[in-house]
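Handout, section B. The chain below has 146 residues.
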Amino acid sequence: MNSIELRWRRLRPNAQLPARQTELASGYDLHACLEEAPLVLGTMPTRVPTGIAIAAPPGSDVQVRPRSGLFARGVIGTIGTLDADYRGEIYVTLYCLPDLGSFEINDGDRIGQLIVSQLVDAHWVETDDLGETARGAGGHGSTGLA
């Protein structure tokens, strides 16, 4: 397996280094780093600070992704991309489904995950024929909902 060096900076003393929870996990868990806890989420998107910043090297793709455990409880996390030239604090944007109403986030809670991969350059070629497939132009959900 290839590796990418990610330099990171602690912005607050209680910030935690992202870490995998199991040996084969693909994501590195991000933790809330709150000066005042708890932070109460509502139905409007809220940026939750992690207390860290990173320097992703050129050619890397670092994405913030939601945690399925929070989603199962009615807390939605948005997907975000950390470009190689971004040096600010990492935030995880979270909000609640309307039926949940509110949810408390405490300092140190796992709130998202970082996925790290490598980019490839794309060479765009304009064409009049993309070739035929069984799906064709079928849109979202065209292969079934299950």
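Note. The chain has a mean pLDDT of 92. Compare this with the example in section A.
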